[in-house]
Design goal:
There is one protein chain. The protein is α/β, with parallel strands linked by helices. The protein has a 4-stranded parallel sheet with strand order 2-1-3-4, with helices on both faces. The protein is elongated.
């Protein structure tokens, strides 16, 4: 078995790296569903969803959505227990990129989630 592994290692290693990149790298956000602004607000107003603001504290000083859970991406994984499991979590940040990363983490942890984009488009 050991000889077989050594002999096949040059073929297995790239597959292992590719698997890791797909699961944890930028490709991980491909599975994240985005939601249009009007649909996001409809879910939130019907109490089926809650907004999760993943911007850093200094960014939220300019404002945040009413009722949003403030949870910076830098401390996201350590605070997952603060989030409701029974609601759709609509993540947002400044532009939408961090929202997709947060939603990918939430999907991995078993939450229902969609990326709602950036604060500027949602606050209107």
């Amino acid at each position: 078995m050991k000889k077989s592994l050594r002999r096949n290692w040059p073929y297995l290693f790239p597959l292992l790296v590719l698997s890791w990149v797909i699961a944890n790298g930028p490709l991980a956000t491909w599975s994240v569903e985005t939601i249009p602004t009007d649909e996001a607000w409809a879910f939130a107003k019907s109490d089926q969803a809650v907004f999760v603001d993943v911007r850093e504290p200094d960014e939220t000083q300019s404002g945040y959505l009413p009722g949003a859970i403030l949870m910076p991406l830098s401390r996201f994984e350590e605070n997952l227990d603060r989030l409701p499991k029974d609601k759709l979590l609509l993540t947002y940040c400044r532009s939408g990129a961090r929202a997709k990363k947060a939603s990918a983490m939430l999907l991995k942890a078993g939450f229902k989630t969609k990326a709602a984009g950036g604060y500027a488009q949602l606050k209107h």
